[in-house]
Design goal:
The chain has 14 helices and 25 strands. With 475 residues, it is an alpha+beta fold. Strand 21 and strand 22 form a beta hairpin. It starts with 20 loop residues before the first strand and ends in an 11-residue tail after the last strand.
């Protein structure tokens, strides 16, 4: 499937309905601590939980954060017959998929997260068939009403010999004779970045991870050309190798000798979540506070965030690395302007809203260019209501620096990273704000309110009913 990049939204809202749903009332105060431990990497945890279904031996995941995705996947795997044990105190998840028998992904849970889509290749490989309804996640483009499509995943599975049918939201696939190796150019599931010509787009990561999972137990050799280069895919390949799959991982290609049977046991220590690291670096800069982030597997964090770190150095964010500690120092003056491109081989699209916040404090105008998702400027209206001078043209955001001021009304984050960006903006302003869309945050940040309170945030949760759901009383 060839994904098409469509113009991002970000214009001023007119006649917007009154916000409703869960919210936080937030304001800033004095910090309680200057050190925070970063949670485990969500984008690696999710496919690893799915990969455990390829084994009849137990898998353990350490540093597995308490997120909506973990909860939903644990329930789905349990309903499919696996045994899942979670130790909340140590953040260890143990998955025994030996008794797993189901092939229908529970729709009431898959619609809540995007990660259930990684069960498609593993259940197909295990049972020769899989059925799925819609898959959820942030509505930032690609599928019906901005939802997450599955057609490109069907095209990947068909390369391995599966027969697939889709209806725009769900997928049914069969492989009665099992999956076989394939040669796949994953650039087929991307579009060329208009600036460097390298593959990018919303389907590139999912296609790569789906192909890795399908190839792991297939018959024969699979060659994945131009694989997604970020650590969530590269580390997944290394996890599969530890479970007994013979792999040769190179930047230009991954070659997999399929196990043609169940994988062995695996123990996975997740690195720190890359986007949580960028989020709290941004928080330290905006709040003008020294902050120390305690990391797991800092080598993976540094390598995975190499493009982001280059931009942070360029704009003048002081960072000091010391073993598993990352020290964020207050900036000594105005930040430098920059041109940041979010692409599959450059800055993470998830980090783009956070760079927009940082560049509002630059000494001259900056530009952000989005080449992955089509709806990634959902935070723009909220920042404009706080005085930010932002202009959107297609996939390009121009940032004219200046101080933020209190918003005249509630803020709303329509996706995970937009909500995080608006929350940090409100804390930086310092006055009380109400933020809607906080339900998205539980999909990307573990124990987020507690960590924010450590930085001095005062958070009071609440809920506002929709107009047609307001309570009524009888006389």
């Amino acid at each position: 499937m060839e994904p098409q990049l469509t113009p991002a939204t970000g214009g001023e809202a007119t006649d917007a309905p009154a916000p409703h749903g869960p919210y936080w009332d937030i304001e800033s105060g004095p910090p309680l601590t200057d050190e925070l431990r970063m949670a485990g990497f969500k984008h690696l945890m999710v496919p690893c939980m799915a990969a455990a279904c390829l084994s009849e031996d137990p898998w353990t995941l350490d540093n597995a954060p308490e997120l909506t995705d973990r909860q939903a996947l644990a329930v789905m795997l349990t309903q499919l017959g696996a045994r899942v044990d979670v130790d909340e105190a140590t953040e260890r998840v143990r998955i025994d998929a030996a008794p797993l028998s189901g092939h229908r992904i529970p729709a009431d849970w898959s619609t809540q997260i995007h990660g259930g889509s990684y069960l498609l290749p593993v259940l197909l490989a295990r049972h020769g068939k899989v059925e799925s309804g819609a898959h959820g996640g942030c509505r930032i483009g690609g599928g019906r009403q901005g939802g997450r499509p599955v057609e490109h995943l069907a095209h990947v599975l068909e390369r391995f010999g599966a027969h697939c049918t889709t209806d725009g939201t769900g997928l049914t696939a069969t492989a009665p004779h099992g999956l076989h190796g394939a040669v796949i150019d994953l650039a087929d599931f991307a579009t060329p970045d208009p600036h460097r010509g390298l593959p990018t787009g919303p389907h590139y990561s999912g296609a790569t991870k789906t192909a890795l999972l399908a190839a792991a137990t297939a018959r024969g050799t699979t060659v994945l050309r131009h694989p997604y280069p970020k650590p969530d895919a590269q580390e997944l390949a290394r996890v599969l190798a530890r479970a007994g799959v013979a792999l040769d991982v190179r930047p230009e290609a991954i070659e997999i000798q399929g196990a043609d049977g169940p994988l062995g046991a695996a123990s996975v220590a997740l690195p720190s979540d890359l986007m949580e690291v960028i989020t709290f670096i941004t928080a330290g800069v905006l709040l003008d506070r020294g902050l120390t982030l305690r990391l797991s597997r800092p080598d993976v964090v540094q390598a995975g965030l190499a493009p982001e770190l280059r931009h942070l150095r360029h704009i003048g964010v002081p960072l000091d690395w010391n073993g598993d500690l990352l020290h964020v120092r207050p900036a000594t003056g105005p930040l430098a302007p920059d041109r940041v491109i979010a692409a599959s081989h450059l800055v993470y699209s998830d980090a783009q809203p956070l760079f927009a916040l940082l560049l509002l404090a630059a000494s001259a105008p900056s530009v952000l260019i989005e080449t992955v998702w089509s709806g990634r400027f959902g935070y723009v209206d909220g920042l404009r209501s706080m005085g930010a001078q932002l202009s959107v043209t297609g996939q390009e955001l121009r940032i004219h620096p200046g101080p933020l001021r209190p918003a005249s009304g509630p803020l709303r984050g329509n996706d995970l990273r937009a909500a995080a960006a608006l929350l940090l903006a409100a804390l930086a302003v310092g006055t009380p704000h109400r933020l809607y869309g906080v339900e998205h945050l539980a999909r990307g940040y573990a124990q987020f309110p507690a960590k924010l309170r450590s930085l001095g945030a005062r958070i009071t949760p609440g809920t506002t009913a929709a107009p047609d759901q307001e309570a009524t009383t009888d006389d």
